[in-house]
Amino acid sequence: MLLLRYKSFLMANPTKYTIFKTKWGYFGLAAGGKGLLRTCLSCPTCKTAECHLLAGLHNPRFEKNLLKPLQDKIIAYFEGHPAKFATPLALNHLPPFTQNVLTACRKIPFGKTISYSQLAAMIGKPLASRAVGNALAKNPIPLIIPCHRVIRSDGSLGQFSACGGTKTKKKLLDLERKC
DNA sequence: GTCCCGTCCTGTC
DNA sequence: GACAGGACGGGAC
After folding, report:
1. Would you say the C-beta of A115 is within 7 Å of strand C?
2. Is the CB of A174 under 7 A from strand C?
3. Stated in angstroms, how far is A157 CA from B7 C1'?
4. CA dist., res. A20 & res. A22, Å (int)
5. Which nucleotide has the least CA–C1' distance to A97?
6. A132 CA – B1 C1', rounded, Å
7. What ranges in chain A are assigned the alpha helix state H?
8. How do the pLDDT tens digits run along chain A, 179 residues long?
9. Residue A10 to residue A165: CA distance in whole angstroms
10. Which of these, A158, A143, A151, lies nearest to A110 by C-alpha position?
11. From CA A179, how far away is CA A176, in angstroms rounded?
């Protein structure tokens, strides 16, 4: 069902993408008609980033200067400069609960962390921490939606589904704390 | 520190 | 519609 919704969304919104180099490796951005669709975080090679980014996308077209201001912000971010990513996102293909979770997650300030239960409370479902974790696991736009700022209530990191796993999550948090 | 159960959403059949 | 699984929380031991 969800896959069908996602496929029809992609068919209706032909995508453009770009891969660029940052201090942490190659970063990929894919955008559809209504905004940013997907990101791929600090991959070791350009090819890996491309594979992760383009899986399942309909007829993607490479565009070197796609969302250039955002590219510059991301490069600066990995060099240790605080950044706020205000780019419009295309989340319509996701279930409403997931959209709520990801939208609330965007409000977490740079360098701050909150727990899964606090994020659950922000969307009015204080007991849905586990469901919040599920929603974050489906985050197609890591970094821009800062799901790395959501940790467990006992202070441990929890999981991270983007490229690099919990190591990347820890590195991102360390980077933001140093800024 | 570990176990267990409650909670709640999603995906699959 | 039912059921199982999951990036969790919190109490009991």
Report:
1. yes
2. no
3. 21
4. 7
5. B9
6. 25
7. 2-12, 46-54, 68-78, 96-105, 116-122, 129-137, 165-178
8. 555 555 555 555 678 999 999 999 999 999 987 789 999 988 889 998 898 888 877 788 999 999 999 999 999 999 999 988 989 999 988 888 999 999 999 999 999 999 999 999 999 888 999 999 999 999 999 999 999 999 999 888 999 988 888 889 999 999 998 87
9. 26
10. A143
11. 5
Using the structure, give the distance in angstroms from the CA atom of A156 to the C1' atom of C7, rounded to a whole number: 12
CA-nearest of A20, A11, A58 to A42 is: A20
Note the pLDDT of residue A78. Answer: 95
A147 is catalytic: yes
Is the CB of residue A20 less than 8 Å from the CB of residue A71?
yes
Which residues, in sequence order, are CB contacts of A162 under 8 Å at separation 6+?
A: A41, A139, A142, A143, A147, A148, A168, A169
Angstrom distance, A115 CA to B8 C1' = 17
A40, A43, A147, A163: the active-site residue: A147
- As given in the structure block, the two tokens for residue A115 are 């727990």
Place of tokens 């383009």: A54
Q: Which nucleotide is nearest to A135 (CA to C1')?
A: B9
